[in-house]
Design a protein that fits this description.
mainly alpha, 8 helices, 75% helix
Amino acid sequence: MNISPFLYIYLKLHNFMANNKHLHDNFEVNFSLKGITSILIGIYFFLMSYAYNYVLTNFLVDDHTLGMLSPQIIEIIFISLAGIFILFSSFALFFSGKRTSKSFHLLLWNGKTKASFSKYLIGIVLLFILLITLMKLGLVNLIAPSFLFTYGIFLLLVKNKARKNILILSALSLLLSIYCFVIPSYWYSSFTILAIAHAAYGVVER
């Protein structure tokens, strides 16, 4: 039976979408680090590291406003900056996932994504507990390497077969955590490098 080319293309696309819906029914794909999402997270990384460096540098200056603040207030500022970074990065992932699920006519929140998102929240809470504990113990030199190491592990866990290049970001983050552990003052450069790598990954992976 002869069918029109347009109907043939429509049927092919329909079959493709139907056969691949299950591939877009999980957290790793719906909330994927690609394109503008990765670029935005890279920008947030850079802004966060710049803010940290600005606060630390001027906190040591006596006649600067930040130099007049107590260490406790500086700790609150640091925690708040980390919270803002996590919040904005999560929003970037959310809106990216919303676009992906909409394009495949799927619900963004299903059993798999809800379960994975719960683990994501637990991971964030545990990370904050770890960083705050290190801060309270005075082990400030371990904060940056601990964050980078945890972030590298997170990237390793969310990678999927279609986007194995994210392993490069994961390996880079783990490598930078080692550098920061050996050379604590390397933290600002490490965050900047990771920010640039995120932006570059977003340009390559669309």
